[in-house]
## 1
Amino acid sequence: MRTAKDFFAPLAVGAPAPLREIPARPSRAIHFFDPGNEKMAAKVPAMVGTVDVLLGNLEDAVKAENKEKSRLGLVKIGQEVDFGPTQFWTRINSLDSPWVLDDLTTLVPAIGDKLDVIMVPKVQGAEDIHYIDRLLAQLEAKAGITKPIQVHAILETARGVANIEEICAASPRMQGLSLGPADLAADRRMKTTRVGGGHPGYLVRQDPTDGDIEGLRTTYQQDLWHYTIARMVDACAMHGIYPYYGPFGDIKDVVACEDQFRNAFLLGCVGAWSLHPVQIKIANKVFSPSVEDVKHARRVIAAMGDGTGAVMLDGKMEDDASVKQCKVMVALADELAAIDPDLKAAYDA
Ligand code: 1VU
Ligand code: MG
C-alpha cells in the first residue's frame, strides 16, 4: 500500500518533488503536429501564443518508418523554440510499442526541462501510470530536471474506461484525461468508422400518432460519447485534474466540430484536440465562456453579497448553489483574460 506520505515523495533520489496541485492553465486547444513533417514543423514557431498547447505527436498518424525522424524533430523543436505562454506537450508511443522506451530516454534528457506534459496513449489501468511515474522520476533525476513532468492519459480502451478512477488517482503527476474516440470505438466494437463526433444512426424517434406518415416522425440524433465524457468529467473533478474531448476527424465539418466541442465544454471539459490549424479557432471560441455568460455570472455574484440566501434576478431564483456555478464561469474568464487581451477587453466592456 502506498501511503499519503509516500505519494508526495519523489520516486527516485534526486527527482523533483511531486506537485501537490495541478495548475489550472488554459488549454482550450491541444494542437497536434507531426514534428517529422517539415511543413508542419516549420509552422510551429509562428503558432506560439496563438494556441494554448502545442503537442508534438509521436504515436498514431506518424508512419512506423518515420518514428525516429519525428522523435528527433521534436527534440530540435523543443531545443530551438521559445514557447513563451504556450504549453509544450508530447504524445509518446504506447507502452507496448517498440518505440516508447527510446521516446522517453531521448526526450527527457534532451527537452525534459521544456516539456510540460507527456500524453500517454491507450492507458489500461493504474499499472501503466505507475510504470511511467517511476521511469520519469529516474530520468528526471539523471538529467537534473527540477520541475516534474506531468502525465495525461488517453482513455481509449474499454479497460481504461472501467479503471478510470484508479488511473486518475495513480500518481500526483496526473494532469488530465482525453477521450480517444477512434481507438475506443474499435476496442468496444462500436459500429462507427468515424473519428469522434456523432452518428446519424444513433437516435431516438418521436412516438407515432394516428395517421402519421412514416418518415415524417421527427428523429433526434443522440451523442455517442455522452456516457464516456460524463464519466471522465466526474473522475477528473474528483481527483483535481482536467478532462478533454479528443479528436474530431471531419476537418471540413467545422459546424459539427464546434457542436461536439460545445457539448464537452458544457459537460465540464476544459479543452479539445486540434488536428488542423482550422480547429484551433473553434476550440478557442468554444472553451472560452461567452461574454453574456460572464456578465450574467458577475451580476449574480454581486447580487448575492456574501454568497448565502436567495435573491430574484430577471425573474429567476439565485442562491448559494447558483452563485457557485457563476464563480466557476468567472474563474475561467479571469484565467483566460490574463492571457488574452481581446477576451479581457470583451469581458470588461
Ligand atoms: O500550406 P502548407 O502546404 O505549407 O501547409 C499545409 C499543412 O502542412 C499545414 N497543416 C498543419 N500545420 C500545423 N499543424 C497541423 N496539424 C497541420 N495540418 C496541416 O497547413 C497547411 C494546409 O493543410 P491542408 O489543409 O492541405 O491539410 P493536409 O491535407 O496537409 O493535412 C490534413 C491532415 C489531417 C493530414 C493534417 O492536418 C494532420 O496530419 N493533422 C494531424 C493529425 C494527427 O495528429 N492525428 C493524430 C491525432 S488523432 C488520433 O490519434 C485518433 C484518430
Ligand atoms: Mg488513439
## 2
Amino acid sequence: MEKRDFSEISDTCKWESPDYEPWFPVSEKSNPLTRDIDKSSPNHIVRLLAACDAQMFQKDTGTTYQRLFSDSVVLTMLEVARTVEQILRDPEDSLVVLSGCGTSGRLAFLMASCFNRALRDRQQNTVYSYIIAGGDRALLTSLEASEDDPKLGMLTLEKLCEGKRRVLFIGISCGLSAPFVAGQLDFCLKHPDIYTPVLVGFNPVTQAREETMPGYSLTFREVVQRMEEQRGQRAFIINPAVGPEAISGSSRMKGGSATKILLETILAAAHTAAFTNTHVTRRVLLDMMRGYERVYSVTYSHSDQIATLLQTAGLSLQCGGRVCYLSWGSLGLVGLIDASECIPTFGADYEDIRGFISGGYQDMDNIEGDLTSLGSQFCIAHEDFVSLVLPTLSDRDTVLLLYTCHDDVGDVEKMVHRVREKTSNLHSLYHGLEGDTAVDSIGLLCSSVLNITWPSSSTVHMQWELSSKLVLNAVSTGSHVLKGKIYRNHMVDLQVTNSKLYHRAIHILQKLSGVSLTQCEEALLKAIYHVEQLPEDITSAGVTTHTLTASRRNRVVPLALVCLLIGCSLSEAESRLESHPVVRDAVEACLTSSQHLTSSAGDQNSTNH
Ligand code: S6P
C-alpha cells in the first residue's frame, strides 16, 4: 500500500483558513500544495496536479465554503435543471445561452455544441447557443481585452436573443469577476419577463470582484448582490469552492473542469428527464457528479504515462520544438481549447502547443464558420497539419494523438504512418470501452501509449472529454513548468492584457519583492511604458490604456520584478533578463543577488553598530 504523505494532506486544507492570503478570492489564491511545483520532477508534477484536482471533489466540512456536493449547490443545480427541462418540453421561441470569457467562453461553446448535437440526433430543434467575449476568434486565440467590456456583453446577448420569448442565461465566470458577464447578468435582471440568469463560478459571493468596471455604474459584486435578492426564483447562483488553482489564477484548469462537470450534469439530467418523461432528481445529479469523480480517479491512475507525456512535451518546448495534438471527434475541441490557452497563460507562441481536429471547421460547428482566412493560426484541420507542420516535423517535436473507439481507426492509422515518416516522437491517448477487443496496431507505432478503458454509458463521450482535458492540462502546464516559465506556483511572465491580469501582476510583484503595492504598480507601469520616470499622463490614465499598451510589449512583469529586486534601471533589468532567458532562472538569480545585497548591507550595519 502506498504510504500517505501527511504534509500534503494538511496542505490540502490550508487555503480554507481565513488567515491564508485573505486579500485574495479563492480563485486567485496560491495553492499551498504546489508551492514547489517549479522544482518538481515530471512524476511529482502529475502527483501535485492530481492532489489539486482532488480538491474539486472534497466533501463539505461545514466550513465557510460550500463544495460541489453541498446540499445548497445540488439544490440550485436541481432548480436550474428543471428550468432547462421545461424549455426542452416546450422549446418554441426559447433559448439556453451559455456565455463566458477565455476558457469559460470556450467551454460554453463546447457544451452548447454537444447538447445541440444531442437534440439533432433526436430530430429535435436546437435550443442552445453560446457567447464568447471577442467572438469565435477567441475560441482559438487569446483576446483577453474583450473580457473588460460589460456593455459589449450585454449588447451581444440582446442581439442573440432578439425575438425570444424565454431565455435561460448561464453566465460563467470562475472568479466571479468578468465585466463582460456582469453586464449580461445585469441585463437579464432588468428583463425578468424574458430572461432568467444563472451565474456559475467558484468563489463565495462575498469574494466577487469589487472593482468598478469601465463605463458601468455597478461592480460584479453589486450585480451578484442583486441576483441574491432574487435567488431561487428569478436568479440562480452556483458557486462551490474548488480550491486554488495549481498555477495561481489559472482557472482554465480546475475552474474549467468544474464548469464542465456542473453544467453537463445539469444539462444531461434535463435531457434525460425531458425525453423519458420523468423529472430531474437530486439523486440523478449526485450520481452523475460521482461519475465525474470516478473519471478523475481513473485518469490519474495512469499518472506514470501522463508524466511520460509531460516530460516529452517539456523536452520539445525546451529545445525549441513543437507539441501537436492531433485529435478526432469531440476530443478535437478539447485539444484546441487546451492549446489555445497556452498563449495567454504562458505567453506561448501559437506554434508551441497546437491543436488540430480531423474535420476542421466542419467538426467545430461554430457560429462564424470557417476562420482559416484569418491566418495560419486559424488553420486547424488535419489537412492543415499535413501541409503546414508535417513537412518540417522532426524528433524535436512531440505529436500526441487523441482518439476513441468511436472514431475512424483507419483514418488514425493513415495519419500515424505519415507522422512516423518524420518522427518517432509520437504518442497516443486512446479511450476505449470495456469488452473492446480492437487490435492495437496504432499503439505499436507510438513511443508511448495511454489507453483508458471505460464502462459503457450514455454520457461516456463527456467523460472522455473530461479525462482528456485533465491529461492535456497536465501536459501543457507541466511542460511549461519544465521549460522554466513558472516561479514557485506563479506564472511570472503573464501577459497583462486585461484588468484582472493587471491586478494579478501587481500582486505577484508584491509577493515576490515584498515592497508595497504602490511601488509595484509604479514598477509595472514603468515596464509597460518603458520609461524610467512616470509622467503625469501615464499615472492619470486608466487601466484600459495600460493594458492596451502592455499587449504590445513582452516580459513586462519580469522586467518590473528585476527592477524591484535589484533596484536597477529598466535597461539594466533588460540586460539581466537577456542573460537569463528562462524566467525562473532570472528571478532566482535576482533573488540571490538581492539577498546578498541585503545581507551585506546587514553586515555593514552590524559592523557600524
Ligand atoms: C484562465 C484563462 C482565462 C480565463 C478568463 C475568464 O486560465 O486563461 O482566459 O478563462 O479570464 O475568467 P473567468 O474567471 O471570468 O472565468
